[in-house]
Amino acid sequence: MEENRQGSRAEGQDAFTKRRWWILATVSVGTFMATLDGSIANVALPSIARDTHTSMGDVQWVLNAYLLTICALLPIVGKISDMVGRTRIYNYGFLIFTLGSLWCGLAHSLAGLIVARIVQAIGASCMMANNQAIVSVTFASGGRGRAMGITGAMVSIGSLTGPGIGGILIGHFGWPAIFFINIPIGVLGFIAGWFILPRTKLNKDQEPFDYAGSVLFVIGMVAFLYTASKGEDWGWSSIRTVSLGLLAILFLLTFYIWERKTRFPMLDFSLYRIRAFRIGNITALLSFVALFCSNVMMPFYLQNILGFSPQKTGYMMMVYPMVMAVVAPFSGWLSDKIGSAYLTTGGLLVNALGFALLNTLSMKESMWMVALHLAIFGLGHGLFQSPNNSSVMGAVPRPQLGTAGGLNALVRNVGMVLGVSFSVTLLTFRMNQLSGHTGQVSAHDSDPALMMQALHTVFWAAFAICLFGAMLSALRFTQKTQPTM
User: How many angstroms separate the Cα of 440 from the Cα of each of 60, 228, 417, 424, 437?
Assistant: First the structure.
């Protein structure tokens, strides 16, 4: 009799073990799609501008609308998910994202495409806010680091392979293909999520939603990120930049005060009292700021200095995500064995080494040498990202996993925006300084030797950011692990 009971338990455990990997696979598909569409449209902008008869300045909103919407909605969607069910919101997000993709492909005007991208971003934010929470609950009994490693790899692969995949699709089928490709995958993903993902019960004792806090956050975050992305074009001391920056600070400060006083806050700042959560979010922000200095600057080096074609540049930039895809699952698995402190700190140190080595590259390098340098970032970020996500989500109480997942994804997206803005601003400033030019210096028409010096300044700044992040990450060595799941 006892043997039968033990056999039944073993069979049940085996069934759950198999199912949880199907859950991870389903979530990974959504994670890849949501992050892919943040970068796949980059290479399509010239074609979209030509077909819609709009300027490159206006067509940039195809990218900005997507990223700004995601950043504005992530914490809000995370809170709603904690209230009504993470799986439910995730599945609805998959459906909304797929419908938004269809609308994008069918759009014939820039305005219609931008609105469709906003719809697409609403769905993406529903998936991004909940993928880590679903994985954390599913793998709470073990293997969470390994699972986070796989989802972390999907984030990086999606973000960094977008231009390469987009270029191939546009070259053969035109720019609508980059959106139509999401439809069959999205339909299958929605059906799989409906039947595979764990059901979540609706909380009957729901607390009221914080509408005032949500409005304050959306306005403040959009104003902040828009200022960061347009400051270089407007001039950092211009009236528009200063005014919009002060408006962002005002709304975000008001949001913070409101959230501390209201009984049912949209964003529970008490999460930041959890040391692992606080350190993990700050180091993640620094990591993405630094890495996007590389992602933005390396194409300038490859094309303007080494003379690589755009296609060759795209292939070279895919070295990083390819290495990341191999390292991240392994580092996640290893973090389950030895903890996150060694891996996260070591990963940031490897990235710092990578930026230091970039400054040794000359104006004549083989593609293999450049690929080797880019592979270092895949190793470093692969070591850092998965254990960091596992540490952050493992430190949060289960009822707040949706909020925590939304904040973790928000930090990643804000880091990307700030990294782009910081690197471009520093590059332009340094080139102006070296050339004695008082206005805007065109990166495409400038002296390669001058650009090389300016790139060194950006890479050393990113080196310093990684070192600072490693110092903060090292604080994990002094904390005791306190399981909350």
Answer: 19, 18, 21, 12, 8
